[in-house]
Amino acid sequence: MAFEHETIVYLYYLFLKCRDGDTRSRALRLMDEYPRREAFLDSKHIATVGRWIMDVEEEGIEGVPGCEQIGEEKRMKVFGLDFDPVDGGHRTHGVRTRNADLELRSITWP
Q1: Would the CA dihedral through 86, 91, 95, 101 be positive or negative?
Q2: Which of 16, 41, 70, 71 could in theory staple to 8 by disulfide, Cβ–Cβ 3.0 to 4.6 A?
Q3: Torsions phi, psi of 21, nearest 5?
Q4: Who contacts 26 (Cβ-Cβ below 8 Å, separation ≥6)?
């Protein structure tokens, strides 16, 4: 199987916006099975961010969630990505609103 150019950004957008667990998992599986790099996007790093988003949004849900199980209060909005030149790690930052409070989360990977 071969991807056309700009595939990673569409798969990334899919698991940011889609709430269906099966669809999101398939997008991540594609990135794992067909690793590639498109400009500054690397499918392995994007898949790591996707799993993190899914883990945060699916906390407390048993089994594969459907769209209706991930309400707005569970949605993670990614707002930043940076690189630590000292440690060499990447960080992605997200926020979600829970009970009128902002909850900030971050993930770091090599």
Answers
A1: negative
A2: 41
A3: -60, -40
A4: none
Does residue 98 lie in a domain region?
Answer: yes
- pTM for the full predicted model: 0.80
Residue 82: pLDDT band (50, 70, 90) is confident
Task: Identify which of 89, 29, 90, 19 has the alpha carbon closest to the alpha carbon of residue 56.
Answer: 19
Domain that holds residue 90: 7-109
Cβ contacts of 21 within 8 Å, gap of 6 or more: 54, 58, 64, 65, 66
What 3-state class would DSSP assign to 84? Answer: coil
Residue at 1 is within a domain: no
Amino acid at 40: F
